[in-house]
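Re-run with default settings, no changes from the original entry. Doing this only to confirm the output is reproducible before filing.
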Amino acid sequence: MKTIFQLDDNIETSQTKSLWVFGYGSLCWRPGFEFDKAVVGHIKGFSRKFWQGNDVHRGTEEKPGRVATLVEDNESTVHGIAFAISGEAAISYLSQREVKLGGYDTKFTTFYPLKGAPIRNILLYVATPANSLWLGDAPISNIANEIIETKGICGYNVEYLLRLADFMRRYCPDVEDSHLFNLEAAVMTKIRDKKMCLTTMMGDAEITKELVASNSAQAYKAKACVA
């Protein structure tokens, strides 16, 4: 899957003074706002978990989907993309998407790019158990069941998970995110067993063709069909 924007691996010292935001979920493949630069890297002290509910973008009030959040974990790192924010409209957009509709709070931490200077105060959107959409931990099989059964205004919950897993394989190939990849494997097994149509759930037909054909996404061949 090709991203729709240019990714860099380096941050110049002069660029660290900009306002940056860290994307670790759908922002990795669908940011939806203007930015000056996008850089691959990681943050420390967190792990990525599908513990946050979503009743708008990937689910409904009756059947919320599961999306990623960050859980404090001193021994872990989370890889994703740092975006240098361009203009005030981006912050308003993110506040609506992540805070008002998503149930996330804001935090700041340090971001480490593959090359160059770290960003000392990058903005994070983090969901906590205090928000009303919190679903929390559950067995991987149970989370997978919720994901294959939910859909919101932005599409199927399956798409969110698989595009994030594909991003990680392509741009952070040496990183093992066990929660993400174990969940992906469980979802793909259930899709195959239930004979569900993966192409329909993945939304963008052209991008889905790349996913199905890619060497890093052979598992997506489980059940491909014409949408």
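The chain has a mean pLDDT of 85. Strands lie at 10-11, 20-23, 35-54, 65-85, 105-113, 115-116, 119-126, 151-152, 155-156.
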